[in-house]
Amino acid sequence: MASPSIGRGSGLHPVRGRLSTEERAAIQRAWAALIPEADAIADSITLALFEQDPDYLQAGSDITAVVRRSTREHIRLGLRKLSGTQHGSEDNTEVWRRTGRERARQGIPMELVLKAYTLGSRTLWEELVNARGANPGLLEPRLLLVAGQRLWHALDAQNTILVDSYRRETARMQQRDVTKILAVLDGLRDGRGADPAFVVDARNTLGLTTQHRVACVVGPLSERGDPPLTSPEDAVDGVTSLSHWHIRDGVQFGVVCPAKTDLAPVAEALAARAVGPVGIAASADGLVSFAAAYRAAARAAATIGAGDTPAAVATDRLPHIVMSADDEISDLVVSHALGSLNGHPPAQREVLLRTLAHVLATDGSPTNAAKLLYCHRNTVIYRLHQVEELTGRSITAPDDRLLLTLALVRSGHWADAVAGVAATHAGNVTPESSTATSAR
């Protein structure tokens, strides 16, 4: 549909100065001539809109009827405003505000809404040009240009009001959504997963299905109040399908939906960005058991020391969790497991405990332990005999082995020994450096 252009090269130039009463009336009469065709014009705009932007249809099955009704309302009001026949109670600005709010709620991108308004203004301009082509006496060329200029100026005002309304409604929606998400996370942490109705609502709020795997991530804030993860969503983006985060009572925690059952990729992704300890625990029954997963993740985080990888899966820290759960019980385990070795002179006790840890970490092999400790195999065997004599325990007895391992976890020797074994297997350490590491 051809239309004359406005601006340079058209032979027409912007009109400056005030219009006379007669000129304003002539422009209004020209617009009034289109009023009988208002609904037909609006329907052509709606049709063109859906042909050009089929993404509109994603807003719901009834969006076609909604947009058709809204477009008719806009065109009718617009023509009455332009023609000076508007009713006193009609308020175009309220219609634009309402449309901005509605399109935001429908999830239609703002650029599509603005494009629709531009399409509507262009169509009205083309209809006016066509009406004058059919009836040259309807409006002289100069006033036709003025009518077009004012139409486009009106579009600027419409867009300004609509954008403001759209953004305000989007902000309100986001605030309501965020508030509800945080309330759901608080409820899950507090054990409301036991309430079936709450779980259904929580899934809807968080965007989860019953098929999603669920895990919990927990990390305490620093003494200055800084979270261990500054951009947790970005950190887990490649290894989870969904995540929601919250900070409450000095703790940062989140619901994550791992892509795999194995949580190691999540721990690795978090460790790369963590500036403080972070624990991860699977929630076996989804949101139902989230509170238990929260406690396990929190306990895992509490066992992570300055020299450890900053993020760890709870199941990889179970001995540490067990021995950190209760100081009195942990001390009892150490005292019971080590016997008189616990009262041995510190320097000798350190040598014996380090040796015991390396033997147990190498599956009871004095030969492999000797390589890590950079000493003779017979020296290791001699020290083991001392340990067994002082503790009254045998490293070949399953119960004794468990108690001794837990005692070593508590003392810190177990972590050093395991780290030495892992480094040797990776080819990153020599026996001398392993011994130096253990001595530290």
Automatic annotation (TrEMBL):
Residues 352-408 form the PucR C-terminal helix-turn-helix domain. InterPro entries: CdaR-like_regulators, PucR_C-HTH_dom, PucR_C-HTH_sf, RsbRD_N_dom. The lineage of its organism: Bacteria, Bacillati, Actinomycetota, Actinomycetes, Mycobacteriales. This is PucR family transcriptional regulator. Residues 39-177 form the RsbT co-antagonist protein RsbRD N-terminal domain. It comes from Rhodococcoides corynebacterioides.
